[in-house]
Amino acid sequence: xxxxxxxxxxxxxxxxxxxxxxxxxxxxxxxxxxxxxxxxxxxxxxxxxxxxxxxxxxxxxxxxxxxxxxxxxxxxxxxxxxxxxxxxxxxxxxxxxxxxxxxxxxxxxxxxxxxxxxxxxxxxxxxxxxxxxxxxxxxxxxxxxxxxxxxxxxxxxxxxxxxxxxxxxxxxxxxxxxxxxxxxxxxxxxxxxxxxxxxxxxxxxxxxxxxxxxxxxxxxxxxxxxxxxxxxxxxxxxxxxxxxxxxxxxxxxxxxxxxxxxxxxxxxxxxxxxxxxxxxxxxxxxxxxxxxxxxxxxxxxxxxxxxxxxxxxxxxxxxxxxxxxxxxxxxxxxxxxxxxx
Length: 341
Hints:
By secondary structure, the protein is of the alpha/beta class. The chain folds into two domains: 2-144 and 282-339, Quinone Oxidoreductase, Chain A, domain 1, CATH 3.90.180.10; 147-278, Rossmann fold, CATH 3.40.50.720. The chain is 30% helix and 29% strand. The strands form four sheets. Strands 3, 5, 6, 10, 11, 18 and 19 form a seven-stranded mixed sheet that branches.
């Protein structure tokens, strides 16, 4: 079967390429319907990744957050039209210790092989999860992003001590919003405090117990554990503020991506006996567990609708470019491409 793949061939230049899809195997064919733009996609599209990385990765179809409908299942387990979320992480070996998203042999959509900007996506059946019938499609489109926060919290629960009275989340963007929301819903007895720098963004954190500007944190404010959700140039400042305000033997989860090495106060990490760990991406179990949480607590999806930003109908390559240009200029929220290909 002939398929069209929309690959980024150089920064800001997308071209349509035609290729065959093998329908004789076990894979399920998915027609994308809603695709969510991630900052990682933007770094490729705008050409802000290092030149050697761009040379290695491109040409490549972008987008690793998305949902679609089943077009063809060779085993006929999923009826045509079934709504599914596509899991971008693709493992190729088993490991009883290392999670699928940390195995060096795993591949990730839109980072080494084609993402979801295609007319049809051929997916291993273990890489798709059926969506709840009544879920908001715009929120569902960035399930992958929410699953990363879910995964981080799971790791936090296995690494932190049980005094979790006060949790601090540094950041006021999408990752911080999602992480703080899931913390509040999964650990309802804990106080969740937000530390950001944009008042208009922190106004959306209506579920949080309190919000503080990072330049006006009370000196005597203490937290039990902290989450860094800032990334880029703000990673160092955020982690060091957490170190300053965290109680001894607390746990620090780092989630923000930085292209540069980050200086942090290791002396106080040692003196306070802190645990610092990183989390990246997620696996199919995180998707499944998150969707179960949506079913149990549907108000989470209602809150997540607050960060749905621009929605762009996409029919042409010009529409794709417009979606990325709109996204790069946004003040916040997620830009969703309604994939009318």
